[in-house]
Design brief:
Elements (H helix, E strand, L loop, with lengths): L4 E3 L11 E2 L4 H7 L9 H9 L3 H5 L7 E2 L4 H9 L10 H11 L2 H10 L9 E4 L2 H11 L2 E4 L9 E4 L7 H11 L2 E5 L3 E11 L5 E12 L2 E7 L2 H8 L5 H19 L6 E11 L2 E11 L4 H10 L4 E8 L4 E8 L4 E5 L4 E4 L5
Parallel strand pairs: 2-3
Antiparallel strand pairs: 1-16, 4-7, 5-6, 5-7, 8-9, 8-11, 9-10, 10-13, 11-12, 13-14, 14-15, 15-16
């Protein structure tokens, strides 16, 4: 038994880097922030501890690569010496923020729901009265701020609205609307991961099977595409998934062309309706890189098993833990840019 360490590239977020993990991206969009924005401590800590992530996804060295494009990260990269012309223009950044509004997912879901075997319903509300009317009709409802970070700005509610009324009013006052979504009896979460290229094409990259807790991401399966498909087809047929993917590309390609050419993902879920399993084909559109893309990159490196983001209280540190199936290893990728073997035999 011996400890194994593999060197990665130097951690990102350094002054000379053109790649950056900026997990505060969703918060920047929610606040419509820009130059000089200071993220909350938790976001700063996550950014610092997982700064090595760009060395995993390994984009072309000539490209400027970030987790998500926003005015704050552009200002930071310019300050570090990255040429402004290598990044989205101010007009493109404004459009990226507009397209990141969850109302786009409402629109996409409406189109995808035309297909048999699907479920889910959502609306954009602009008043408390509209929220109350939706809940009265649909029962327990998921409410979402148009822009918010993972797991935040998302909550479920019944009538009456008393306990969350001030929260709803605050979202309406600051963001102009609120998304209401019929709650499903969830069986499993998953996502389809894509890249929008500079020619305006949407390229499918792979399936992401992941878990959440209280709406927040916790981990991914690291498996070859066919093995993930085999798991999913126990719940959803291949033909439906193929049609959904094609319709997503047709819907988003003209909207993203000339504006956004980076990775993104569409979150979905399988829901149970009485004794029938149905597909909710659009829970979220994440117009940024996702942990699903990180999982795909790790799978390409040969990892099989699970990947999880955890917080180590003893070390006061976020870690990316990889459990490699069949190798009896627990690999923890630390912010010093090393794979550190947590035990077991090679």
């Amino acid at each position: 038994m011996r400890q194994v360490k593999k060197s990665l590239k130097a951690p990102s977020n350094s002054p000379s880097s053109k790649s950056m993990f900026n997990p505060e991206h969703d918060i920047v969009l929610a606040l419509n922030a820009g130059k000089g924005f200071v993220p909350p401590r938790a976001a700063r800590k996550l950014r610092e501890d997982l700064a090595f992530l760009p060395s995993i996804w390994g984009d072309d060295d000539e490209e400027v690569s970030v987790w998500g494009w926003d005015a704050a990260v552009v200002a930071e990269l310019v300050k570090q010496g990255v040429p402004r012309e290598k990044m989205p223009t101010d007009e493109q950044l404004s459009e990226i923020r507009r397209l990141s509004n969850r109302s786009l997912a409402v629109e996409l879901l409406r189109e995808l729901r035309e297909m048999p075997g699907t479920t889910g319903y959502s609306e954009v509300c602009t008043s408390v009265a509209e929220v109350e009317a939706f809940i009265e009709q649909h029962g327990e409802t998921i409410l979402k701020a148009p822009w918010s970070s993972s797991g935040r700005g998302v909550f479920s509610h019944f009538l009456p609205l008393t306990s969350h009324l001030s929260r709803i009013e605050n979202i309406l006052a600051h963001q102009g609307s609120i998304i209401v979504e019929e709650k499903c009896d969830k069986v499993m979460d998953f996502a389809l991961e894509y890249v929008a290229d500079r020619e305006g094409r949407i390229v499918y990259k792979g399936l992401s099977l992941f878990e959440t807790q209280n709406g927040a991401y916790t981990g991914n399966l690291l498996l070859p595409e066919e093995e993930k498909r085999e798991i999913l087809r126990q719940y959803v047929g291949d033909s439906l998934m193929q049609e959904v993917s094609e319709r997503i590309k047709q819907f988003l390609a003209p909207r993203l062309k000339g504006i956004y050419h980076s990775p993104f993902g569409v979150d979905m879920l399988v829901a149970k309706n009485n004794c029938e399993l149905l597909l909710n084909p659009c829970i979220e559109i994440n117009l940024r890189r996702t942990m699903g893309h990180v999982a795909l990159a790790l799978t390409e490196r040969g990892h099989r098993g699970t990947m999880a983001v955890t917080y180590n209280k003893e070390k006061d540190k976020y870690e990316l833990i990889i459990n490699n199936k069949g190798y009896e290893k627990n690999l923890s990728i630390m912010c010093d840019g090393l794979f550190a073997d947590g035990g077991g035999s090679e």
